[in-house]
């Protein structure tokens, strides 16, 4: 059955280490052991580098590389979701960009977060640490990617945003600041 | 007999001017000494409100889209989005936000109103464009000028926003919602200057700043500036550990934590 893993290295900074480890023999072997069938990589400007290091033996895994998708990565992530009779639950591996992490968690996908330590601002690493501590994601560095992938498919994870019927976001806070009271809603309706 | 010299007069005049300015500043500056310093004359409020939303770069705007999800357009009948010039992404996101919040008013059907068109149920929304505070890779020494230019643009945007108000023409908006971008600081600064000068009433343009979900241990630059200068009425962070760290440091600079505002 189709089982897809999606690796995204981020749109703004090149993350060569992550790409190299995503197609390393060790990672491909781990993916093959876990019966993954497809590996999709978003690699920005690393296209030439990918052609250089592209493995000969992919261990039966179908590898696809693309640079950007200006419409976002929803499509690629959704391909990792489980669908009855079609695909098994896959996995997303991403750099620690908040937007990408949120996108994957909203879709309920298992997630391995690999912070790009070469970036100066380390608040992304703090985000990855805290999310791992709270059980939402598995954090990894580039060289332990294979082990992190295994771990991520095995452990039970906390699901993001168990949707409630309550109004969320800024709405209740803004209403309070403006002076709207709850029952006012009825009058406005 | 003491003679009143020109110098003495000048000194006295300066002292009076500085004291007045200081008192005025103390009067209009928000939050730091207790929230809701200037309640709206009508409380509880039953009339529609005018909301300004500052949209910045990609990440901030995507987060704002999520934060805005449950805003009721029947309450905030006029919504003005402030975007930076050349930022088509944010302009299209403004429409996305509108689509989301209008879709919750089922009596309207499934279409989304376009900007500048009034609707009986979901009101009106428009976009104001301001110059960028800082372009990516812009050298630091020119940032001062572009920031000043941006600030001028923000004055203009707010004055135009008041002029174009569909709630009550000429009246300044009720609330400004911002998150991380540098433009947010400029818009809030401009709103405070307008209040300082008495152009806008002190209870108008309540500002809410929501720190990015990505911030766990430290504030972003915009957040630091706004919190340390005490410029926002409401300062919200999304992680409890960050709230505890800041609130434990000083009792003058307090932030609020209401859980994750992103979905």
Automatic annotation (TrEMBL), chain A:
Primary location recorded for the protein, binned into one broad class: endoplasmic reticulum
Record EC number: 2.4.1.141
GO biological process: dolichol-linked oligosaccharide biosynthetic process
GO molecular function terms attached to this record: N-acetylglucosaminyldiphosphodolichol N-acetylglucosaminyltransferase activity
Boundaries of every Glycosyl transferase family 28 C-terminal domain copy: 5-153
Known partners and oligomeric status: Heterodimer with ALG14 to form a functional enzyme.
Pfam families associated with the record: Glyco_tran_28_C
Protein's UniProt name: UDP-N-acetylglucosamine transferase subunit ALG13
Keywords recorded for this protein, A-Z: Endoplasmic reticulum, Glycosyltransferase, Transferase
Role noted for this protein: Involved in protein N-glycosylation. Essential for the second step of the dolichol-linked oligosaccharide pathway.
From TrEMBL, chain B:
Keyword Transferase: yes
Keyword Repressor (UniProt): no
UniProt-listed InterPro entries: Oligosacch_biosynth_Alg14 (IPR013969)
Record keywords, A-Z: Endoplasmic reticulum, Membrane, Transferase, Transmembrane, Transmembrane helix
Membrane topology, from the record: Single-pass membrane protein
Transmembrane segments: 6-27
CC annotations in GO: nuclear membrane; UDP-N-acetylglucosamine transferase complex
Cell compartments where the protein resides: Endoplasmic reticulum membrane; Nucleus membrane
GO biological process: dolichol-linked oligosaccharide biosynthetic process
One Gene Ontology molecular-function label: N-acetylglucosaminyldiphosphodolichol N-acetylglucosaminyltransferase activity
Primary localisation category: endoplasmic reticulum
Lineage: superkingdom: Eukaryota
Gene3D superfamilies assigned to the protein according to its UniProt record, in alphabetical order: Glycogen Phosphorylase B
Record's subunit section: Heterodimer with ALG13 to form a functional enzyme.
Summary of the function given for this chain in its UniProt record: Involved in protein N-glycosylation. Essential for the second step of the dolichol-linked oligosaccharide pathway. Anchors the catalytic subunit ALG13 to the ER.
Family: Belongs to the ALG14 family.
Protein name: UDP-N-acetylglucosamine transferase subunit ALG14
Organism: Lachnellula hyalina
């Amino acid at each position: 059955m189709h089982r897809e893993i999606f690796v995204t290295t981020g749109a703004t900074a090149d993350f060569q280490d992550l790409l190299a480890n995503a197609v390393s023999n060790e990672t491909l072997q781990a993916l093959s052991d876990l019966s993954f069938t497809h590996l999709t990589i978003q690699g920005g400007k690393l296209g030439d580098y990918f052609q250089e290091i592209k493995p000969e033996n992919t261990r039966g895994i179908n590898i696809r590389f693309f640079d950007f998708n200006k419409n976002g990565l929803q499509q690629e992530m959704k391909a990792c979701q489980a669908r009855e009779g079609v695909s098994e639950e896959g996995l997303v591996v991403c750099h620690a960009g908040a937007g990408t992490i949120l996108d994957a968690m909203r879709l309920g996908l298992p997630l391995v977060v690999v912070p790009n330590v070469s970036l100066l601002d380390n608040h992304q690493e703090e985000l990855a640490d805290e999310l791992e501590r709270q059980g939402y994601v598995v954090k990894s560095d580039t060289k332990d990617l294979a082990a992190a992938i295994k771990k991520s498919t095995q452990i039970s994870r906390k699901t993001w945003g168990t949707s409630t019927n309550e109004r969320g976001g800024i709405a209740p806070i803004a209403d309070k600041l403006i002076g709207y009271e709850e029952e006012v809603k009825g009058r406005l309706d | 007999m003491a003679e009143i010299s020109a110098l003495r007069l000048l000194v006295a005049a300066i002292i009076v001017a500085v004291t007045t300015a200081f008192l005025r500043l103390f009067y209009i500056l928000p939050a730091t000494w207790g929230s809701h310093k200037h309640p709206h004359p009508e409380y509880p409020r039953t009339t529609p409100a005018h909301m300004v939303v500052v949209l910045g770069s990609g990440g901030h705007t995507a987060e704002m889209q999520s934060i805005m999800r449950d805003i009721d357009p029947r309450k905030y009948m006029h919504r003005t989005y402030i975007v930076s010039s050349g930022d088509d992404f944010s302009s299209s996101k403004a429409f996305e936000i509108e689509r989301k919040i209008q879709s919750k008013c089922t009596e309207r059907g499934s279409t989304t109103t376009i900007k500048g068109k009034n609707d009986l149920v979901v009101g009106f929304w428009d976009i104001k464009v301001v110059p960028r505070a800082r372009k990516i890779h812009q050298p630091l020494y020119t940032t001062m000028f572009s920031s000043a230019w941006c600030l001028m643009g923000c004055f203009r945007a707010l004055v135009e926003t008041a002029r174009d108000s569909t709630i009550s023409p000429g009246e300044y908006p009720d609330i400004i919602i911002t998150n991380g971008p540098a433009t947010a600081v400029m818009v809030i600064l401009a709103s405070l200057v307008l209040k300082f000068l008495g152009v806008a009433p002190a209870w108008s343009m309540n500002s809410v700043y929501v720190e990015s979900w990505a911030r766990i241990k430290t504030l972003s630059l915009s957040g630091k500036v706004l919190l340390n200068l005490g410029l926002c009425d409401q300062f919200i962070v999304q992680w409890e550990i960050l709230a505890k760290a800041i609130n434990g440091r000083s009792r003058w600079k307090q932030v609020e934590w209401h859980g994750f505002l992103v979905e």
